[in-house]
TrEMBL record:
This is Calponin-homology (CH) domain-containing protein. SUPFAM superfamilies: Calponin-homology domain, CH-domain. Residues 6-115 form the Calponin-homology (CH) domain. GO terms for biological process: regulation of cytoskeleton organization. It comes from Vespula pensylvanica. It holds the Pfam family CH_2. One of its GO terms (cellular component) is axoneme.
Length: 202
């Protein structure tokens, strides 16, 4: 599988970070490895397809694969997101980078099914009586706690980088000025010593 674009990864992490799951989030690969988090996530957008009670948290690879197989058969196949056996094994084994790629595809599917992009989704929610006309597959909490659009994120990231560069430059100037002050102080001490020596001889 090809490497994932860094901007897409940032969006996925921000999206998942704002969602409340049944247990605390610690490591995304391990958190999603038993399929329970994915079931809870899909329940928000496809409530008719998902019964979260079908998915029991488990530590064994066999249990994790079983959960993913149920999710694959009962939910993912119905929304044209069926996963291959190899991907399920990788997810169950918490292989790094796999869940992110799956989540990118899932999120794209959700947005497609909603028939709106992120920006219009949020504006519809804000303009149409705070979500009264929103589609049932959307959770108002998800819309209200919206992910920052990519162009905004990039702009803020660039501004932060520029500010950090300015701060670093100021720190360098301060260090330079401090060095100059030390040199001047030492010069004053040396000059004072030179002035006092002749006076001592007289």
């Amino acid at each position: 599988m090809e490497p994932v674009n860094e901007n897409k990864l940032d969006e996925i992490y921000a999206w998942i970070d704002q969602i409340t799951f049944s247990r605390p989030k610690k490591n995304i690969s391990r958190d999603f490895s038993d399929g329970v988090f994915m079931a809870e996530l899909l329940k928000r957008y496809y409530p008719k397809h998902v019964d979260v009670h079908n998915y029991v948290p488990g530590n064994s690879i066999a249990k994790k694969i079983d959960n993913w197989n149920i999710l694959n058969r009962k939910v993912l196949s119905k929304i044209d997101m069926k996963l291959g056996k190899d991907v399920i094994n990788q997810l169950a084994n918490s292989q790094l980078g796999i869940i992110e790629k799956v989540l990118i595809d899932v999120r794209a599917k959700i947005l497609k099914d909603c028939n709106v992009d992120r920006d219009s989704l949020y504006s519809d929610y804000e303009e149409n009586g705070r979500g009264k006309n929103a589609k049932p597959t959307l959770n108002p909490e998800e819309i209200a706690n919206k992910t920052v659009p990519r162009h905004t994120f990039i702009r803020l990231k660039q501004e932060l980088q520029e500010r950090n560069e300015t701060i670093n430059a100021l720190h360098q100037k301060i260090s330079h000025l401090e060095s100059l002050i030390k040199l001047k102080d030492q010069r004053i001490v040396d000059l004072t010593a030179q002035v006092t020596r002749p006076m001592a001889h007289t």
